Records
---
Amino acid sequence: MATIVAFTTQEKNSHNSHKFAFTLLPMNYGNWKAMIEHFLVFNNLFGYVDGTITCSEFKVSTGDAITDNPSYPRWICNDAHVHMIIISTISKYAFQHVQGDETPLTYLACAQEYATALANIGEHVKDKDLVLFVISGLHEEYNGLKSTLLARHPPITFIELHAFLSDHDYMINKNIPDVPTSQPHVFTASTETPSPNISNLHSQLQFLHNMASQLGFQLNPIAPQSATP
C-alpha cells in the first residue's frame, strides 16, 4: 500500500481559496457534479471520493512487531479536508438530502476527531482554532449565533460550544408555532321570516313622497293601509 502524504498548508489554502461558480441545489445536481469532479481531478483529490485512494490500515506489521501506521492519520486528515471542500459547495436546502441533519454533539464529535487526527501527525490544533473551525462550518441559520460567539469575551472554548448550540436549537424549535387543529364552525340558519314593521315603512314612504314633491314630481298622497282583519 502506498504511503499517504498529508496535504501541506499551502495546498489546503489553495483548495480553500477556490471560488466555486455555484452551490448544489435540489435542481442542479448534474451541473454541480461536473463542476466538483473537475476541481477534484485537477487537484488530485478525486481518489478520496471514488475510493482509489483507500484508507490505510491502522496498524502495520514489521517482522514480528506491530506498530501504528503513520499513513492512517494522514489519510483521515486528507479525507476530512476533501469532505469539507465538498460540503462547502452544498446549499443548506440540499444538505439534508446529502448527509442528513447532525445533532450538535455529532457535529462537535466529528470536529474533535479531525483535531485528534491532526495531533497524531504532529499538527496540534489550538482550542481557539478548533472553535473557529466549528463556527465557520455552521449553517446560515446559525449566523446570529456565530456573531455572538465570535464577539464573546473571554473567547468561548470548544467544550462550551455544545451548550450554546443545543440552546440555540432548543429556542428555534420552541419558537415554531403549533398549528392548532381547526374546529368546525356550526352555522344555524333561521327559518323564520321577520315580519315587516308597517310603521317604519310608512315613514320611509312619506319621506320619499316629500322629497319627490320638492323636486317637482306629483305623486298620489300616501294613505296608511289598515290591516286586513
---
Amino acid sequence: MSSDQRRLSLSDLNLDELSLAFTNWEGGLFDPVTGDVYIIGGGEVLGLENPDIDPDAEGWIRIDGDESWTGYRDMEDFTAAVNDPVARERLERSLDGRGAFLRFKNQIAEISEALRRSWFAYSDAVVEIRVIDWLVQIDLISEAEAEADAAKEQRVRGRSRHLTWLLGGDQ
C-alpha cells in the first residue's frame, strides 16, 4: 500500500459492483479513494462523468475480469456439492465440451427453481470471496477485517437459505 493510500473498510465498499467488475470479461477500474467501481465495456470505461479523466493519474486500480476457467471451476465445484445424484449427473454431463456454460445454465433451469437460486447464491458468494481476497492482496483491507467479515466457508454456505438444496436440505 502506498504511503498516501489508506486502508478501506468493507462497509465502505460496494461488493456487488466489485463482483460485477470481476465477472465482466473486460474487467473494470476501482478508485481506492472513493470506492467507486467503473465497468469496462466495448473498450470504454462506462459511467464516467468526465471522459477526459486519466485513471492512471488518479491512482485507480485495474480490475482484471475473471478468466473463463474460473467460472468453469465454480460450476464444477457447485456440481460436486449437489446432493441429488440424478441432478449432479445431469450437471456433470452439461460441463463436457464446448458450450458448457450455456448447457449448464439450461440444465440448472430445467432441474428446479431451487437449484437455480442455489447456483446464483453460490456463484455470488464465491465471487465475493475472490473480491475480498483481492482487496487483501492489494492491501486495501486488512486480513483481520476480511476474516472478521465472515469465515469464508460460512459465507458460501450461509449467504442464502437456498443453499440448503445443495447441502442435503429441502429438495
---
Amino acid sequence: MEKKTAQLKTEGNAFYKDKNIRSAIGRYHRALLLLRSIDSDVTTSVKGFGPETPVLTPEQEALLRNTQVDCYNNLAACLLQRKTVDYTRVQEYSLRVLKWRPGNAKALYRAGVATLEMGDAETAKEYLIQASKEQPNDVTAENRKDRKVGFLATQSNIVHKMLLKAKEALHALLNCLCDCSCLVSDMNVNFVTFQ
C-alpha cells in the first residue's frame, strides 16, 4: 500500500507540473483514500466492523502523516490553480495539514489566502504573518505576505471609505425624512386651517 500511495502522489506531482490539475487532484484523492484505510484516527472509530487493520509502527505512522500532509498540501495548491476556486476546501485541506504540522509554511500561506478570500481578513493576516515567520528567509513567502498584508490594508481602507459613504448617505436620508415630515406636518396644518 505504501508503494501504491507513493506512486499516486508522484503521478499527481507530475500532472501538477504539466498543469493537468484535474488529473493531479484525482491522484492525490486516490492516495488519501488508500491511506484512510490504515489511518488509526479513522479506523479506531469503526473497530469491530470489517477486518482489523494492523497497528502501525511509529515509522509507518510518520510515513502515513507525511504522505497525508503532502497530499493535502498539494490538493490545496491544485484547487488554487482552478478557474473557479473553492476556498472553503482550500482552507479545509490547509487546516488538516496544520492539525498535524502546525508550523507548515505552505499550509499557513494557503489557509491565509483562502481565509482572506472567504472574508476574514484578520485571521488571514495571522496565518500569513505566521507563514513568513516559519520561513523568514523565503523571499517568495515574504513577498506574498507583503502583498497580502498590503491587500488587507487596501481592503480595510476600501471598507472604511464605504462605511463613511454609507454613514453620509444615511445622514442625508434622515435629513430628507425630517424635511419631508416637516413638510407633511406643514401641509397638514395648512390643510386643517384651510377647511
---
Amino acid sequence: MREPVDHYRAIEQLIYRYAESIDSGDIDGLARLFERGQVVSLPSGWQVKGYGSLKDFYLKQIIIYPSTGTPCTAHSVTNVIIDLDQSNGTALARSQFVVRQALEGEHEQVVMSGRYSDQFSCDDNGWYFTQRKILPTYFGDLSRHFRGQLDRTPAGQIAAPDNVVAFAGDKRLN
C-alpha cells in the first residue's frame, strides 16, 4: 500500500495532466485520462464518457493551430483540495482554473475560468478519473479556442440539485 502522500501526489498529477494535455494539443492523451470516466459540464449537464467519445468530442471542439500544434492556451489550476478515502480507494477533489489564450500577434487574454469537481478511483494500476465536472464562472472570447456552441448559462441561473456537486459558499449550487 502506498503512503498517503503518494496518493495525493498521484491525484494531483492527473488534475495537472488534464491541463497539460489540452495546452500541448495532446488530444489523445487528454481522452486517455477518461478511459474509465466521463466529463460533465454544468449547469447544462452535457456529458461525454470514455476514451473514443471524448477524443472525438475534443477533436471537434478544440481549435488546434497548425503553426504550433496547440490551441495556444495556458490552463492554470489552483487551490487543489483532495478528500481521500483510502479504505475504499476513492477520492474527491476540487480546484479552480483559469484559461488564457495568446495567438500570434495578439495580447494574451483570459477566455474562461471556473471550478473543477473531480472523482477518482484507485486499483492495482493506480489512480484514475471517474468523473470531472466543469463549472465555468467566466467566459471571455472563446471563438478561437472552441468550435461550435458552448453553454453560456447566466451566472444567476441555478442548476438542478441532482446534477451538481456543491462547493462551499457557492450560492448557485445551494
